[in-house]
Amino acid sequence: MSNFQDIKALVDKYYQTLDAATGNEINATIKRYTSSEYHWRGMHPFYEQGSADEVAEVFWKPFREAFTTIQRRQDIFMAGDNQIDGGESQWVCSMGHMMGLFDTAWLGIPPTGKMAFLRYCEFNRVANGKIQETALFCDLISVMKQAGVQPLPMQTGAELITPGPRTHAGLLLDQQDPAEGVKTLALMNRMTDDLVGSGMHSDASELSSTWHEDMIWFGPSGIGATYTLERYEKQHQGPFEAHLDDIIFNGHIARFAEGDFGGWFGWANLTMKSTGGFLGMPGSDTRAEMRVVDIYRRDGDKLAENWIFIDLLHFLSMQGLDVLERLEKISTV
Predict the structure, then answer these.
(1) For residue 41, which of 265, 248, 261, 262 has the smallest C-alpha distance?
(2) CA–CA distances in Å: residue 222 to residues 68, 69, 265
(3) Does the global pTM surpass 0.85?
(4) Is residue 149 within 8 Å of 110, Cβ to Cβ?
């Protein structure tokens, strides 16, 4: 079991420096903290980038030009040994919101001149004192909705600015008891085994063995958040099962836990076909990918809260709908 304090301190310092940087300082900051073989994964339309300059030019500089006076408002900050490669790699995860004044159009999304929140979750693999690899998930559909744009049909869950843990204890800046992380990871794995073993379909009795009855599922904008097992089944699990089929679980790239918190991401976690109706799309024989992040909080012997990020724009684009391209066309009419 590793001591994660050094890698957490490195990522924390990187965030402080990056968030204070402007213009070409952003390029220099990313170069300073990342390796020469840096690999970055981002959601649609950013995708994969292979250098600090590419990451700065494709994502960070356009975002920072649109969202001014940024505050990074972290809700969860944790690290761990990656179970997927037997603990060979160590990862740091940060989840929360980047808040700023939305002053300039971004990706065709019209500015509001008001404060806006970009919900994000970022995984960084650290080795030899450098960030070697990053996966950044962010909720662009939420930004659209904050700007008054409704890109998808009414969602099944609640639309809200997603809060952090009920305990307000997600910033694991200090060293944690390793035994607690082992418990969290074991529970996450048991829940996953149940889900995968049932073909990604879980009934109430199966769910209740690993989840508290008053669990909260903070889904991505476009699907929404649900509260209690009963409403989770009705507002997310039900539509998921009814409108998606031939689901294949592809596994994860990183999976770890620290203290009461844990999480994973895949690239892509799932592939599936739409039978029609999910996110307003018609049925299709085209297989589409879901790139997913799950972050969990364990309370005792069950899971209490779950924060989810899904690259829905990529999922839709694989079925022939480029939401951002459509938004750009509408905005120029």
Answers:
(1) 265
(2) 25, 27, 19
(3) yes
(4) yes
